[in-house]
Amino acid sequence: MSLWRFLVPFTLGARLVLVPCAAQTGFSTLYSFTGQNGDGGEPVGTLAIGKNGEVYGTTATGGSGVCNNGLFLLGCGTVFVLNSPATSGGAWTESVLYRFTGANGDGWSPYGSVVIDSRGRLYGTTLYGGTGCDTWGCGTVFELAPPSAPGGIWTETVVYSFTGQNGDGSGPAGTLALGKNGELYGLTTAGGSSNNGTVYRLAPPAAAGEPWTESILYSFALPNFSAPQGYPADIGLIVGDRGELYGATPLGGRLEYGVVFGLLPPEAPDDTWTKIDLFTFPANSLGGVSPSGGVVAGKTGKLYGSTVFGGRGDCPEGCGIVFELTPLAAAGESWHETVICDFGDCLSQSGNPQTNMVLGKNGVLYGTALTALFALRPPLAPGGTWQGFILQEFNGGSAVGQPSGLAISDDGVLFGTTLNGGLCNYCGTVYRWAPPEK
Q1: Can you tell me the distance from the alpha carbon of 168 to that of 426, in angstroms, rounded to the nearest whole number?
Q2: DSSP 258-296
Q3: Residue 300: helix, strand or coil by DSSP?
Q4: Burial class of residue 282 in the structure, from the number of CB atoms within 10 Å of its CB (0-12 exposed, 13-18 middle, 19+ buried)
Q5: Which parts of the chain sit beneath pLDDT 50?
Q6: Residues 347 and 341 sit within 8 Å (Cβ to Cβ)
Q7: What is the rounded (10 degree) CA torsion for 159, 165, 169, 172?
Q8: Nearest to 304, CA basis, from 347, 257, 360
Q9: Beta strands in 301-384 (DSSP E)
Q10: Tens of pLDDT along 141-188?
Q11: How far is CA 12 from CA 3, 178, 239, 415, in A?
Q12: What's the rounded Cα separation, in Å, for the pair 141 and 304?
């Protein structure tokens, strides 16, 4: 049976959300990081929403440790949670669940989000640290287990330390993807057979206390594929219904304009995974350049994402686009790209989107550009025009900073982070945007 059988329509659990009204934003800043007294700073990744509405995330700096990136002495980073107020109108409460140390094999600088499994355990990556590699370490995958009693201490365990040797990856970044059997899938920005990055899988142990098992599923290589680098916090993979993986790289492809790719699982246990270029961004930059926020899956198997550059507008190298990819009609054919929003016209107030997008009810897409939170409403009839709305601008008042990640709750509320802004220039914030009736 052909491996192309995997590339058929699939669904990935789109969240419910109401179509927004552009005139009412419902924006609020939930928390401003301080980077002092053990608090975190620079939340570069997306957020994860717990079953009780709590919001989990990471900060790349801050905490109690001191780590050296070769230029500055920085805090080693944190994992935090924000809990909603007990009464309407109250303040959200932040708690630091873990402060990385960068010592004794611990990781540091988590440049990505955490994911939550069915037992409430958190999993994420650190760009540096661990037991392998050079002075800084090649990075880790960690687990944070919740306390057995409320108010207790979360327990951190390094489940894997990358080595950057013998084909292993180095520098994991972005959001992990959680498989149906508890396996974790992720990307590294370096390492592999060409030191150009990898896709890896970590399988959980059969018994408590045993090590996780890492497998390198694919090593990126030149000249036909470049490393998954660029803005690593929001680059991640998504898992299809049949275990296939989908992702994007800002570089690579025949013209180095970027690629959306698929990885197909083997038909037999000992076979290798197969990488397929679903779409290579064209020489005509109107089709987009550098897809830096990964992809999100819609109905009928379509994929959506954005590019930092390309398109129209007066930004250097173009203001970017939002694209839709329709599955191939026949085996071996490239997927079809449709530009559903060119920031030079449909959202001309902003541009250069470089983080992840999320999908709401009725196919509404939400994302962030360099200075704005936006929504795209699909056409009422096939072939119609998508409508763009600026929901919030990040250039004044309480909304200042560069948006760096986005999540959506089951009831359609958006939660995001800004890399900077807030109480200090480089501390960052967590914000909330709700539809008018929320």
Answers
A1: 33
A2: -EEEEEEPPSSTTSPPEEEEEEE--SSGGG-B---S--E
A3: helix
A4: middle
A5: 1-25, 230-233
A6: yes
A7: 60
A8: 360
A9: 303-307, 321-326, 336-342, 358-359, 365-368, 372-377
A10: 999 999 988 889 999 999 999 999 999 999 998 899 999 999 999 999
A11: 20, 12, 8, 19
A12: 27
The answer to whether the beta carbons of residues 75 and 67 sit under 8 Å apart is yes
The answer to whether 308 and 289 are in contact (CB under 8 A) is yes
CA distance linking residue 53 with residue 218, whole number of Å: 36
The DSSP bridge partners found for residue 228 are none
Contact 75, 62 (CB under 8 A): yes
Per-residue pLDDT of 93-129, as tens digits, reads: 999 999 999 999 999 999 889 999 999 999 999 999 9
Dist. CA 195–CA 214, nearest whole Å: 17
Contact (CB, 8 A) for 337 and 323: yes
pTM above 0.85, yes or no: yes
CA distance 197 to 261: 14
What Rg do the C-alpha atoms of the chain give, in angstroms?
Answer: 21
8 A C-beta contact, residue 132 and residue 126: no
Measured distance CA(189)–CA(254) in Å, rounded: 20
What sign does the dihedral 161-166-171-173 (CA atoms) show?
negative
- CA 421-318-228 angle, to 5 degrees, is 70
Give the tokens for residue 308.
């930092």
Query: What amino acid occupies position 43?
Result: P
Report yes or no: 330 and 394 within 8 Å, Cβ to Cβ.
no
| Sheet (strand 122-126) strand order | 115-116, 122-126, 140-145, 155-161
Name the one residue in this structure whose structure tokens are 């094999």: 105
Measured CA to CA, the distance from residue 313 to residue 307 in angstroms comes to: 14
Q: Which amino acid is at 216?
A: I
